[in-house]
Amino acid sequence: MSIYVGNLSYEVTSDDLNEVFAEYGTVSRVQVPMDRETGRMRGFAFVEMASEAEEAAAIAALDGAEWMGRDLKVNKAKPREDNKRPGGGGWGDKDRSARRY
Fold it and tell me: Which stretches does DSSP call E strand in the chain?
């Protein structure tokens, strides 16, 4: 399982997150998604820790804590959902009657 860390400063690095979460146990992995267009951090990250107990301790301690001028949102990450929207509308959608202009 991994931890979702939201409301992060755009200045945060994976090393910063590793340092903070290491206070609560062994950090297995830190993932900081970047915006494809700007190359800038997207304001959230995912942290994986060695055990559920370490994750629970980190969540309890850091959720709502102020860090780098922002109140962190820290909880268990939810499984990724399919990005398909109801009704289609993607580029590959053959039914063009559903599109609005």
Answer: 2-6, 27-31, 44-49, 66-67, 70-71, 73-76
- What pLDDT was estimated at residue 95? 54
Rounded Cα distance between 82 and 100, Å, is 23
Q: What is the pLDDT of residue 80?
A: 76
Mean pLDDT of all residues in 86-98: 55
The answer to whether the Cα torsion of 15, 19, 21, 26 is positive or negative is positive
Q: From edge to edge, which strands make up the β-sheet containing 73-76?
A: 27-31, 44-49, 2-6, 73-76
Mean local confidence (pLDDT), 75-86? 76
Residue listed under structure tokens 């820790």: 49
Whole-model pTM over 0.85: no
